[in-house]
Amino acid sequence: MIDFVTAPATLPPGQRVYAIGDIHGCLDRLLAVHEQIAEDLATRPVDDSVLIHLGDYVDRGLDSAQVVDWLSGGAPVPVGRIVNLMGNHEDMMLRALPGTDKEANSTWLANGGADSLLSWEIFRKVPPAEWANLIPADHQTFLRELEISFRQGGYMFVHAGIRPRVPLDKQEKQDMLWIREPFLSWKLLLDAVVVHGHTPRHEPEVRLNRIGIDTGAVMGGALTCVVLEEDKLGFIRG
User: Fold this and answer.
1) Residues 97-101: contacts with CB under 8 Å, at least 24 apart
2) What are the pLDDT digits (tens) for 98-109?
3) Domain span holding position 154
């Protein structure tokens, strides 16, 4: 049973969005949330449903490869559409995978990349130049083809946030994957209510201009999914 409250934006009647925050290799939590979404759809059918993953599938957790495999294989959740967005950790991984940029390699490894490599059974003694050869091609294609943002109704979905005072169609990839300030402390309305992850909090943050749903699943918190429909929102936790 989802407890709904008034949302800061709206979706047209007959539409529902499920958006899941930062997963970071927590496959068991992701599967638990997907199961609850399926149960919700079974008890409350809707004409148009979208499931959005907000990025950061890899690093820090134990099952990065397994999460990517699940999502790249289509994640059999009975929604009308699944949208997979890129997070800053996928950005770091893709920069490091060629293995030729020492700075990119060390940055990724220092931010959980070693855990990701281990999930693909790539051990520390393996030279960086061999990383890409040991990760399945379909996993790499999935990561490269991730979307950067998605619009639905009065909402914009991105991994990190947007830069205030910049039109939505002029936002830069770097900001949408990495920004914190001035986005997080911005008090004024934006061109859409931004649903994002990237900055972990103990509980979801619902503001007039944004909804933050990174609740630190890999750090012992919940994996949070916000459910949006018409003028209301609720949460599913895994």
Assistant:
1) 97/131, 97/132, 97/135, 97/140, 98/132, 99/127, 99/128, 99/129, 99/130, 99/131, 99/132, 100/128, 100/129
2) 999 999 999 999
3) 5-87+137-237
